[in-house]
Structure formats: C-alpha cells, structure tokens
Design brief:
Layout (H helix, E strand, L loop, with lengths): L1 H28 L2 E8 L4 E9 L4 E8 L5 E7 L4 E6 L10 E6 L2 E4 L2 E5 L2 E6 L8 E8 L2 E8 L6 E3 L5 E2 L4 E5 L7 E11 L5 E11 L3 E4 L11 E12 L16 E7 L3 E7 L16 H11 L4
Parallel strand pairs: 4-19, 13-20
Antiparallel strand pairs: 1-2, 2-3, 4-5, 5-9, 6-7, 6-10, 8-9, 10-11, 12-14, 14-17, 15-16, 15-18, 18-19, 18-20
Length: 302
C-alpha cells in the first residue's frame, strides 16, 4: 500500500507539471490586445491594435464613437452668457468650467446643468455692446478660448407692424448693426381660411450677411387660405457664419464657436385681406435657446 501511494503521488506531480508547461506555451502563442483611446478635436475614436505573434503583423480597427466634440459659447446683449459643451460620451460635469473676462474683470460661470451628450453652463451677468469679452472653457475632453464683441442693436425698417399687404413677394429690411457679422432671420407664416381657422403653419429660419430678405409669393398660395399672418424676428450676430464644416473661432484642443448677439427686433403683419379687420395680431416668443439650436443646426449638428 505504501508503494502504491508513492506511485500515485509521482503520477499526480507529473500531471501538474505537464499542465503548467501547456499553460505557459499556450500563453506565449496567444494574441495580445492593446487598446488606445485617441481624442480628436472633432471626433473621438476607440482604436484597438492587435499584435499577431505568429505572422508579426499589426491590424488596426477604428470605431467611430461620436461625430462631434464641440463647444458653443453664446453671449447676449443685456442678458446671460451660455456655454454648451457637446460630446459623446457626456463630458465629466465636475471637470467642465467656464470663465468670462472683460476690462480687467472676470467671473466663473456658477450655474451648471447636465444632459445626455452635453453640459450647459450659464451666468446671469448682463453683457454690454462694444465690449470685448473673452471666454475660457476647460474640461476633461479639451479646452477652448476666444474673444468677441457684442454688436449694436438693429431694427426692422419694413414692413411696419400690423400692416396689411397684398398677396405677392414681401421684402423685409432692417438697419445695419455695427459689429455684426451676420443676422439671424426667422419668420412664422400662418395661413387662415375665411372662418379664421389656421390651416397651415410654416417656418423660415436662416442666417444672412445681408440686411434684407425676400419672402417669395409662393408662401402665400396655400390651397383654401384667405389670408396670412406673418411674425418676423431679426437678430444681429457676431462670430463665425454657420455652415456645415465651418471652422471655429476659438483656440485650443476643442472645436469652439463663440458668438455674441445684439438686441433684435420683431414685426407682425398680414398678407391678404382678412374678413375680420379688427383682429389683433398675436406675437410669438423666441427663446435664446431656440436661437442657439438654430445655430447648431446650421453647423450641421443636430
């Protein structure tokens, strides 16, 4: 019995040693994987490099995880300043900070909101025209810095409020704003039937470097419509004109767009004769957030 136990012990040790040798050989011949994360100013990639020990070849596989890493900074005359940092994945909120400097003064944005895909910061101090403001943004995905001057106000010169115009092309004109690089033009057109029911609504939303816009008569030929009400808003803007693929105007590792908005103007008028001459035109309200979204949309960012 003693010899039998000794034989079993020796056989067991041989099996254990054989297993260790097998594991060592198998580990030496298996594929090694190295993962690298590369952060670009416009695109974030997850890159996996696979080293094949048998063929001595490297294979690179690139996965596009997001389409934009972008920061939009917006300043408004007599109103707040906003910084919107967009990224996928969402930036670390604790790492995102923004600072505004002007005339030897500076403040740090104290309000922060976090949403899926972006972090929004804002401060409540009012901005004044013809003042140079510098915005500095820092985060875990990069930084951006730029300066801008708030443009002067503008006012719409034609048409006048609450006028009634004949069916046809309608030209909207406004005064040049000192310091403005372009203008945001928005019109809401409501088509009414003879019973004063809204049968169609249509939006015009565009950015212009000119100081007028022609609304084509085709917008006033809705089947069954008797007349139209039109709300128009115009805002002067300083910064980069928004087009898909536009280069930002901020330095740093983030693609940054810094804009400043002067005080705009609005008018409401009628196209075509209403059967209710005493009707009072109802104005709409456009928020600064809607204007920021329109700018991002013009950049090709949803």
């Amino acid at each position: 019995m003693r010899y039998k136990s000794k034989t079993v012990f020796i056989f067991t040790m041989v099996l254990i040693l054989s297993g260790l040798i097998f594991v060592t050989l198998n580990t030496t011949s298996c594929t090694k994987t190295l993962t690298e994360y590369v952060h670009d100013t416009t695109t974030v990639y997850d890159t996996m490099v696979v080293h094949d020990t048998t063929s001595a070849q490297d294979t690179t596989v690139v996965h596009d995880t997001t389409t934009q890493n972008i920061v939009l900074c917006s300043l408004y005359k007599d109103d707040t300043s906003h910084v919107k940092l967009i990224s996928n994945p969402t930036p670390d909120p604790n790492s995102v900070d923004a600072k505004k400097e002007w005339g030897g003064n500076s403040i740090t944005f104290s309000n922060k909101r976090v949403f899926p895909g972006y972090v929004d910061l804002y401060d409540g101090r009012k901005n004044t025209p013809n003042t140079t403001y510098t915005i500095k943004v820092t985060s875990n995905i990069g930084n951006a810095q730029g300066s801008v001057v708030i443009p002067d106000s503008t006012h719409i010169t034609q048409p006048q409020n609450y006028v009634t115009l004949p069916i046809g092309d309608v030209t909207v004109s406004w005064a040049t704003s000192h310091g403005a690089d372009f203008y945001w033009f928005s019109a809401l057109i409501r088509a009414y039937d003879n019973s004063y029911n809204v049968i169609q609504k249509e939006d015009i939303d565009t950015f212009l470097t000119t100081v007028s816009y022609d609304i084509p008569a085709s917008h006033f030929h809705v089947s069954g419509a008797a007349f139209y009400e039109v709300d128009v808003d115009v805002f002067p803007e300083a910064g980069i004109y928004p087009t898909p693929g536009a280069t930002g105007n901020m330095t740093g590792s983030l693609k940054g767009f810094l804009t400043a908005e002067g005080k705009g103007d609005e008018v409401g008028f009628q196209v075509g004769q209403s059967s209710k001459a005493s009707h009072y035109h109802k104005k709409r309200e456009i928020t600064a957030e809607e204007r920021r979204d329109a700018y991002l949309h013009a950049l090709g960012i949803e």
